[in-house]
Amino acid sequence: MTPEFAPADAASYPLWLVRDEAPDELPDALDEAARAWVEACGFTGEADQLCVIPDASGGIAGALVGIGPHRDTPPRSRFALAQVAAALPAGAWRIDNWPDGVDPAETALGWLLSQYAFGRYRKAEGAKARLVAPPRVDAERLLAMAGAEFLTRELINTPANDMGPDDLEAAARDLATRHGFSVEVTAGQALLDGNLPLIHAVGRAGAQAPRLIDLRRGDSGPTLTLVGKGVCFDTGGLDIKSPSSMALMKKDMGGAATVLGLAQMLVETGAAEGLCLRVLIPAVENAIAGDAFRPGDILTSRKGLTVEVNNTDAEGRLVLADAMALAAEETPDWLITMATLTGAARVALGPDLPPFYCDDDAAAAAIMRAGQRNWDPVWRMPFWQPYEEMIEPGIADLDNAPSGGMAGSITAALFLRRFAEGAGRYAHFDIYGWQPKPAPGRTKGGVQQGARALLGALPDLLVK
Asked: Where in the chain is the domain with CATH 3.40.220.10?
């Protein structure tokens, strides 16, 4: 599925945006009959109101959309006008007026995102109305953003029977073929031979072999390494999840899906040019079998740090640790991890606002600003030093699941930071990767988080 704008030269219907503060200020193009129709329909310009206007032959003359009052505060919903895209008849539409406070780029991206529907197992269609790209927006950049999000959504939405480690590798190889990445995969016993023991330990009980997928593009310039958690299904291991907690665990590879989408976006927007880009995905199933790793096991990581396993359901940080240690050996300028890592992050900030961690104040501020500019909000959380002792069990260097249930997202981030040593700068995103209920531009299901924020912040991040 590919997002699209209507061709600029297409025959298109006009769409007018009307505030409820001035419902009588209707477009001059409307004749007396059309104005009578609008009045009869009770259109007042309230937010989300839609009035499709017929022409004299019974066809479509255009439509009015209510956008509510002008506010100085941000609206409650991103992509609010995308809701209209799903309600309008199929065809090409153009917006003929832009009231103050309405962002053409946000509107256009929301319309593109509304075209997505997950139709792998039954026919499904997104919005059929197509928007003519507004003047002065970067249409190609918006198309790249939407296409990357479609890729991420499709990967997350696909259930584990069709999105195991084999399938995730195939998706990575497809991306590599389309966008000029080299691919190297280390799987099964070769993980032990290659000193990636934590990835092997977590995934060895799975039906498909655990593996590390390594994509590279570019051979000069600043170095950016993205590491995405690729737990294709998480039973919790021997510390098994309840059925309700396991229900959405096909999305536990959301970090991998997000870094693949981000990598595609970087290439298609041109941001990857002059950049050494590396993508690492530890792809595993956290399953239960006779050779599953156990609570109480002490594992030795690639970095040499020992880890006491106090909960097999805290497996994501283990597979990330080995991938991060490998990445840090090349001292990248930036190492960034994306992972559906902790329930604590959802308790703190909910499903729509992922936390991120970064020690560089200027870079963190740039990421926050870029998230707002690119309609991809994120929120900075602290690497809180006093909690370091919580991840040090005494019997081993590190504890993968400190007892007590406090500060779970922070302690997970502190755990990961131990394996980022050697990288120039490090940021970690504890994403959710799921839209619990439909919203404008976002169907229920898999969703991309943090990628557009990073794309927008990249010029600032690459400043030494």
From this structure: 13-137
Tell me whether residue 317 is one of the annotated catalytic residues: yes
pLDDT along the chain (464 residues), means of 10: 94 92 76 92 91 92 89 72 93 93 95 97 95 96 98 98 98 98 98 98 98 97 98 98 97 98 98 98 98 98 98 98 98 98 97 97 98 97 97 96 94 98 98 96 97 98 85
3-state secondary structure of 210: coil
Residue 232 and residue 252: Cα distance in Å, rounded?
6
Q: Class for domain 13-137, per CATH?
A: alpha beta
pTM above 0.85, yes or no: yes
Cite the DSSP H helix spans in 329-448.
343-349, 361-373, 408-417
DSSP codes joined into one string, 223-274: EEEEEE-EEEEE--TTSPPPHHHHTTGGGGGHHHHHHHHHHHHHHHTTTTTT
Q: Structure tokens of 152?
A: 């991420």
**Catalytically annotated residue among 173, 241, 369, 380:** 241
CATH topology of domain 148-461: Aminopeptidase (3.40.630)
Rounded to whole angstroms, the Cα distance separating 84 from 87 reads 5
In the residue annotation, 241 being an active-site residue is answered as: yes
Q: Which amino acid is at 132?
A: V
Task: Provide the 3-class DSSP secondary structure of residue 390.
Answer: helix
Task: Kindly report, as residue ranges, where domains of CATH 3.40.630.10 are found in the chain.
Answer: 148-461
Using an 8 Å Cβ cutoff, are 348 and 409 in contact? Answer: yes
First to last CA, the chain: 38
> Residues 317, 346, 417, 418: which is the catalytic one?
317
